[in-house]
Write a structure and sequence with these properties.
Helix content: over 70%
Largest sheet: none
Order of helices and strands: HHHHHHHHHHHHHHHHHH
Number of domains: 3
Strand content: under 5%
CATH topology of the largest domain: Growth Hormone, Chain: A
Membrane topology: Multi-pass membrane protein
Number of strands: 0
Subcellular location: Membrane
Pfam families: MFS_1
Domain Major facilitator superfamily (MFS) profile: 10-508
Distance between the termini: 34 Å
Keywords: Membrane, Transmembrane, Transmembrane helix, Transport
């Protein structure tokens, strides 16, 4: 491969695959209002679909990683790509939210869970020495670029063409990958289907889905009675999954994943910090567009433009952070990253009101981007460094599983906190307005919540005399809820700082 003029064929294919997967995670957040209107759905439903896309990837990641050992990495990659392509077609042609859920969250999610681990092993097996370092650098850089340009790509397509083209354009990449699939090398299967840990796969998938669904149900008070059941059941099943995997390892049977890795202090804390870092990032990318499109009435393109400073800063400082690691310990860069990101969310918490403009967000989003960029540059490397060569596949599967779980939890948890904050703010807003009406405060509140769920499109189901006050009541409630939610984001990032203190230094780790 190294002597071929096309020696970078494998990494270019891997980069195209990772690019379209990452693009989905960030491009569609700016299209929330358009999706609500065109698919006749609600904000909570779109939030659920975004969260479930990352959740399905996380839930099926360990299974997708293990299937490589049965089918071979090339075949696993190509099957995942076909499933992903069927998802993009379904999402492109969606006529309702259910179809978008099936195409984007389910089919694309399962496809991505097979593609992501395979790209890691394909790149790792195709290069040696400096070429390997370069290949993984390119691969990681393209993933960062995909996340950075996602909001602008989504904004351009949604505002000037159609959000469907975000998905439709991905088929071009799929076709190119299939045309150049001969560059991909196959690996010899080391397991048979009978060796697959089906019970472990089911336990891991069901447990994670129950936990996130429980959080998503918090948006509606009438569903709160089911929340503790779902989250509790999910937590119990996850503990059972860990016990089951440990039992299989002790018996000398093939586990779904080598969870003994989690006992390693660096690997365990690295994954914990990855989850903590992903929660504010996902929450930030979800609630900022909700605020901008509801309160400041920005288009999808302008929303993407507002997120651009953060995107560029994250990309630049992930590259700077990688250079810094040659002179500074990763542990300290991670600690500083959490503190700077927390400073960014603290600054942002003070800028939200009904008169907020894009320019007001720039200082906070840039500071946040610096912190997140530094974190992204270190967490993968420090976590993977704890795994031996024979554990790389399992380590990569677990890390990607936890990272996507963090992203899903961020969209679900932070989105729920925002909606609950809005819900609480509406009550005092209605009472302050003091307009007499034949509807109770609760009925008016429900009408306004329904209007928020529709991204303030159409007409609110409230008395006509209250309609002139509705926008101000809602916008004030959203602004107040944004401040509270960003306070929570700051606390989560400070928690990350505290947990990163316990990462061993190089001297101790060595």
């Amino acid at each position: 491969m190294s002597s071929s003029p096309y020696k970078w064929g494998v990494v270019l294919i891997a980069c195209m695959a990772i690019f379209i997967i990452v693009l989905d995670s960030s491009a569609m957040n700016v299209a929330i209002s358009t999706l609500v209107v065109e698919l006749n759905t609600s904000l909570s439903v779109i939030q659920s679909i975004i969260a479930l896309y990352a959740l399905i990837i996380a839930s099926f990641m360990l299974l997708g990683s293990k299937i490589q050992d049965i089918l071979g990495r090339r075949k696993t990659f190509l099957i995942g790509l076909i499933i992903y392509a069927s998802g993009t077609i379904t999402a492109t042609l969606s006529i309702n939210a259910g179809m978008l859920l099936l195409g984007w969250a389910v089919l694309e999610g399962i496809g991505a869970a097979m593609i992501l681990p395979a790209t890691t092993t394909l790149v790792g097996a195709s290069y040696k020495g400096k070429d390997k370092v370069t290949a993984f650098g390119i691969w990681g850089g393209i993933a960062a670029v995909g996340a950075a340009v996602g909001p602008i790509v989504g904004g351009v397509f949604t505002t000037y063409l159609s959000w469907r083209l975000v998905f439709g354009s991905e088929l071009v990449f799929v076709v190119i990958i299939l045309l150049f699939r001969h560059y991909l090398t196959e690996s010899k299967p080391t397991l048979k289907w009978k060796d697959l840990d089906i019970v472990g796969a089911l336990l891991s998938i069901v447990s994670l889905i129950l936990i996130v669904l429980g959080i998503l149900l918090l948006t509606k008070p009438q569903n709160w009675e089911y929340v503790s059941v779902l989250i509790g059941s999910g937590a119990v099943l996850f503990v059972v999954f860990l016990w089951w995997e440990r039992r299989r390892i002790k018996k000398g049977m093939e586990p779904l994943s080598d969870i003994s890795l989690l006992k390693n202090r660096v690997f365990g804390l690295g994954n914990l910090n990855s989850v903590i870092q992903q929660i504010p990032l996902a929450g930030f990318l979800f609630i900022i567009p909700v605020f901008l499109q509801q309160v400041t009435k920005l288009s999808a393109f302008d929303t993407g433009l507002a997120l651009l400073p953060a995107s560029i800063t994250i990309l630049v400082f992930s590259l700077i952070g990688a250079k810094l690691s040659s002179s500074l310990e990763s542990k300290y860069i991670i600690m500083v990253g959490f503190l700077i990101a927390a400073g960014g969310t603290y600054i942002l918490g003070g800028v939200f009101n009904i008169n907020t403009q894009i320019i007001d967000l720039v200082p906070g989003t840039v500071v946040f981007g610096v912190g997140v960029g530094l974190l992204l540059s270190q967490l993968t490397n420090i976590t993977m460094s704890a795994a031996g060569d024979d554990q790389e596949t399992d380590a990569s599967g677990l890390l990607n599983c936890f990272k996507n779980l963090g992203y899903s939890l961020g969209t679900a948890l932070i989105g729920v906190l925002l909606l609950l904050g809005i819900f609480g703010g509406l009550t005092s807003g209605i009472e302050t307005a003091g307009v007499a009406s034949n509807m109770s405060t609760q009925e008016i509140q429900e009408g306004l919540i329904g209007y928020v769920e529709k991204m303030q499109t159409g007409t609110p189901s409230i008395p006509p005399e209250l309609v002139p006050y509705s926008a101000q009541i809602i916008d004030s409630s959203i602004s107040s809820a944004m401040k509270q939610t960003f306070t929570v984001l700051s606390l989560i990032l400070l928690l990350g700082f505290i947990t990163s203190i316990f990462l061993p230094s190089k001297k101790k780790a060595g």
